[in-house]
Amino acid sequence: MPRLALESLRLDAGSKCLIQPLSLNIHAGEQIALIGPSGAGKTSLLHALALAMAPSAGQLTLDGQDAWALPHRQRHRLRRQLMLAPQHPPFPPRQRVATTVLAGLLPGAGLGGSLRMLFSPSAAQAHLAHEALAALELGDRLWSRVDQLSGGERQRVALARLLVSQAPLWLVDEPLSALDPQRAQRSLSVLQQAARSRGHTLVCSLHQVELARHLFPRVIALRDGRLFYDGPPQGLDEEAIAALYAGDEAHAARPLVSAHSLPAHSVPGTQC
């Protein structure tokens, strides 16, 4: 049974169609890169997968349950199976980084435990947050305030929140947009290794096409709200990429990550 199944799912915002009827299956443990030009519908699709946007038509099932046929309370409980990391996370500006990271544990915590965690985290909880931050080269920011962070640091704090989360489905929207190429690659490697070791499902939208093609075994490409491609990265040659991004000036101006700069163990099919 797929972890996520979409059947002719359509997303609208008023009179505008964001996602044309789309059908696909996502299985437990898969790692999927979601690519496409700006405005293709990547963020809308991630929000639909996160049960944050109701479909205009079609069906979405998560772990075999038709999410939007459930009562609100049951659908809310179902959301505990996933964690969404938006591109611009809305962190409270005066909150400590440790508290922000530990919020990744809130879906499975009771009210009392949640309040204690947010206002007075235990030594064990602080250690957990520090380990996640250290993996992303932010160990020295544990007790900093969120408004003291750069944009790239905020993005990595959002990834650290994922690392402490117990949710088996991670949905990540453009997590590398504010990072330099080397740090982006290292951060993505940490995220992928953590998901792989836990058997978690990872769906990650990226503008860095070369990272998507060389680090993910499955690539889903959208253009104008339609499914352009779904399959292994080997099926996306330069001609297909050019057609996917035709007319996207932002993509043309974006520096490429050379495949030769990627470590061999990161390329699908070359792991030892």
Structure overview:
By secondary structure, the chain is of the alpha/beta class. The chain has a domain at 4-92 and 166-266: P-loop containing nucleotide triphosphate hydrolases (Rossmann fold), CATH 3.40.50. It is 35% helix and 22% strand. The protein has 10 helices and 10 strands. The strands form 2 sheets. Strands 6-7-8-3-9-10 form a 6-stranded mixed β-sheet, with helices on both faces. Mean pLDDT is 90; it is low at 255-261 and 263-272.
Concise overview:
This protein has about 270 residues and is of the alpha/beta class. The chain is built from ten helices and ten strands. Helix 5 (about 125-135) packs across helix 6 and helix 6 (about 150-165) runs parallel beside helix 7 (about 180-200).
Oligomer: single chain
User: So, the CATH homologous superfamily of the domain at 4-92 and 166-266?
Assistant: P-loop containing nucleotide triphosphate hydrolases
The count of DSSP E runs of length 2 or more, i.e. the number of strands, is 10
Major sheet: size, sense and barrel closure?
6 strands, mixed
Q: What CATH first level of the domain at 4-92 and 166-266 would be assigned?
A: Alpha Beta
Q: Provide the CATH architecture of the domain at 4-92 and 166-266.
A: 3-Layer(aba) Sandwich
Shape by Cα distribution: globular
| Proportion in β-strands | 15-25%
Instruction: Predict the CATH topology of the domain at 4-92 and 166-266.
Output: Rossmann fold
Please bin the fraction of helical residues. 25-40%
Distance between the termini: 29 Å
**What is the chain-wise order of helices and strands?**
EEEHEEHEHHHHEHEHEEHH
Structural class: alpha/beta
Show unreliable segments.
Answer: 255-261, 263-272
Rg over C-alpha atoms, rounded to the nearest angstrom: 19 Å
DSSP summary: helix tally: 10
- Mean pLDDT, to the nearest integer, reads 90
Widest sheet: strand ordering? 6-7-8-3-9-10
